[in-house]
Specification:
The complex is a heterodimer of chains A (324) and B (318). With 324 residues, chain A is of the alpha/beta class. Helix content of chain A is 30%, strand content 21%. Chain A contains eleven helices and eleven strands. Chain B has helices spanning 2-29, 34-39, 45-54, 61-73, 87-122, 127-141, 144-158, 174-208, 211-218, 223-260, 266-275, 279-307. The chains are: A alpha/beta (324), B mainly alpha (318). Chain A binds chain B through residues 63, 65, 91-96, 99-100, 102, 104, 107-113, 118, 121-122, 125-126, 156-157, 159-161, 170, 173, and chain B through 210-212, 214-222, 225, 229-230, 233-234, 237, 307-310, 314, 316-318.
């Protein structure tokens, strides 16, 4: 593994990002609140949270792919110092500067186009290459993601690929323009555990080979712990803890992170029941006073009636809790 | 693919048997008498009896059917009760006329439906969608004979641009043929497009909500490319299936439209057959329409297979 320094200007800098969902009959609901995160060159950064925590929408807002009624109401997002949210056509950034590896591989592929055509499409869109050259590049890309017999399989349709191979093809697609940043949106959720591990290995391998950064979105803290350099934990639209992998796992500060680590299934121990986090994640439209995790928190106290700020006193290791 | 064509052709046989049996019963149970129609209301009861005996109409229906079917299989559709002319050649002569009319009308319907449906679906819940949806409802609920009359009144009588009806073979006079076919094709096509626009719109909305559309956008694909490479072909798969059914209705409407425009096709023959209780004519014409609809359905199904790779079985993979 090459050395990836954490110093210097971040490749992606998000500051105070707030996303709301507009309703016709209700006040707008907050999907993401005051989210700040950074991805440095060559880093794999994990963005972790339960479904509904706002992690996917945070990532999609960066490339202008929020659903119709959602919008960014405040905050900044800069990619290499350039504003992503205001001005400029997001279509020019997509695929070329920032690529997306979508979740649910089968449905993320167009059923009536060949794998090769879809993998090569960013090259078509962003131009500059001849048709024959594109075919060669596509073959190379599919080989790079370890599709067996890549050149011949390029003319196959998605339904002729297994789930793992579809996910590999989507990864190849994201790599095609050699973007500096790749947003991986739960790319392994629909896959078997063994295939999951292969995709994770592949991402690490590609980072080392191309120097691309990854923002890896997942609900699976254990999975992310194996390969992410830094981790952001999101809960109900807010970042509740962030830091290096080591800081998050060995010096956990936030009760939610601790609960997530506790809830991860382990082979050893074999408890009767897996520990779970009681209660449910609050809905975006629910009005909550104080800490958003208070209702489910085993450590909640009197101070939690007031919303805690993100405590950054500990340098890179930040957390949002009065009692941590 | 070849095996599929074979099995589909084989499935025509039971379809044709059932269709012809239903037709046979239907023409015989409706009130009215073939003999009365052929001989006129002043014919004596003896003359009517003699006519019925002559044409075998006094025998049980099943016997008549088997005899008719046996001869039809050999290409003999009998002779008209009205003028003793053999029915087979008369029908054959009219097939190209109806095929041209229905085919061109279908093209009009599809040429209207695809772009309008795509526009409405792609701009779902916008003003454009509202206009197109309203238009589609208007088109679909207009009776085609009424639209035909309106078209004749405006383009033929008011403006004098086109003939009010009639027919000239395309081989004889291409311009004259198209001049006369234009209004009936528009009348049929516009009405048929009502349903097809809605089908295309729904198909596009469905495709637009697919995950792969977001994948395409995440690659930097713009609207035009998105519609032409990702949306259209996927939306055409359900569209074609429904349009085959709509073609069946369209061929059915040909009966009225051919009469309005005085076009000597199968449809006007069906009408003559019904009015005169001329069973041989009616059966031959109606069965021809059935075969046309079946063949078009087969062609459309094959086309849907070609555009949907999931339906084609190939070598490797599952």
């Amino acid at each position: 593994m090459t050395d990836h320094g954490h110093a210097g200007e971040g490749l992606l800098e998000v500051e105070g990002l707030t996303i709301v969902l507009r309703h016709r009959h209700r006040p707008p609901a907050t999907i993401a609140r005051d989210v700040s995160l950074r991805v440095n060159a060559g880093e794999i950064v994990g963005l972790i949270g339960e479904s509904g925590s706002g992690k996917t929408m945070t990532a999609k807002s960066l490339i202008g792919l929020l659903p119709d009624r959602m919008e960014v109401v405040s905050g900044h997002a800069r990619f290499r110092g350039r504003d992503l949210l205001h001005g400029g056509d997001p279509a020019r950034v997509r695929g070329r500067d920032i690529a997306l590896i979508p979740q649910d591989a089968l449905h993320a592929l167009n059923p009536v186009k060949t794998i090769g055509w879809q993998v090569g499409e960013p090259l078509q869109v962003h131009g500059g290459l001849r048709q024959r050259r594109i075919a060669t590049v596509v073959g190379d890309l599919l080989e790079r993601v370890h599709i067996p017999d890549a050149r011949r399989r390029a003319v196959d349709y998605p339904h002729q690929f297994s789930g793992g191979m579809q996910q590999r093809a989507l990864t190849a697609m994201a790599l095609s323009m050699e973007p500096p940043l790749i947003l991986a949106d739960e790319p392994t959720t629909a896959l078997d555990v063994t295939i999951q591990a292969e995709i994770i290995d592949l991402i690490g391998e590609l980072r080392d080979a191309t120097g691309a950064s990854f923002l890896f979105i997942s609900h699976d803290l254990a999975l992310v712990s194996s390969f992410c350099d830094r981790i952001y934990v999101m809960y109900a639209g807010e970042i509740v803890e962030s830091g290096t992998r080591d800081a998050i796992f060995s010096h956990t500060r936030h009760p939610y992170t601790r609960a997530l680590i506790g809830a991860a299934p382990r082979l050893a121990g074999n408890p009767e029941r897996l520990p779970t986090i009681p209660g449910r994640i609050p809905q975006p439209h629910e009005e909550i006073r104080g800490c958003r995790f208070r209702e489910r928190c085993p450590e909640a106290g009197a101070a939690c009636g007031e919303a805690p700020r993100l405590d950054t006193a500990d340098g890179d290791h930040a957390f949002r809790c009065w009692y941590a | 693919m070849l095996a599929l064509v074979f099995w589909r052709l084989a499935s025509f046989i039971p379809t044709l048997i059932v269709a012809s049996a239903i037709l046979f019963v239907a023409v015989n149970v409706v009130p009215g008498s073939a003999a009365l129609s052929a001989l006129g209301i002043h014919a004596t009861p003896q003359a009517l009896k003699r006519f019925e005996h002559q044409h075998g109409l006094d025998r049980p229906l099943a016997v008549q059917y088997v005899e008719w079917a046996g001869k039809a299989l050999q290409g003999d559709f009998g002779t008209s009760f009205q003028n003793a002319v053999p029915v087979g050649p008369e029908v054959r002569k009219r097939i190209p006329v109806t095929l041209q009319l229905a085919g061109m009308a279908f093209v009009v319907a599809i040429v209207l439906a695809i772009p309008l449906g795509v526009l409405a679906g792609f701009r779902h819940q916008t003003g454009a969608d509202g206009v197109v949806t309203t238009l589609a409802t208007l088109f679909g609920s207009t009776p085609n004979f009424w639209l035909a009359t309106l078209l004749i009144w405006f383009f033929s009588l008011q403006l004098g641009w086109l003939p009010t009806g009639g027919y000239i073979g395309f081989a004889e006079d291409p311009a004259g043929n198209l001049e006369r076919m234009l209004l009936p094709c528009i009348a049929l096509g516009v009405v048929s497009s009502g349903l097809l626009i809605r089908i295309m719109r729904t198909a596009v909305i469905e495709v637009m909500s697919s995950n792969f559309i977001e994948t395409a956008r995440s690659k930097g694909v713009g609207d035009l490319r998105l519609v032409s490479f990702h949306v259209l072909r996927n939306a055409l798969i359900p569209f074609f299936t429904v349009s085959a059914v709509e073609f069946g209705f369209l061929v059915g409407s040909v009966v009225i439209i051919e009469d309005v425009f005085r076009i000597p096709g199968i449809g006007s023959l069906v009408l003559v057959g019904i009015i005169n209780r001329d069973y041989p004519v009616l059966l031959a014409a109606a069965m021809t329409v059935t075969v046309i609809v079946l063949v078009v359905n087969l062609i459309v199904d094959l086309a849907a297979q070609v555009i949907d790779p999931r339906q084609v079985r190939t070598g490797h993979g599952s």
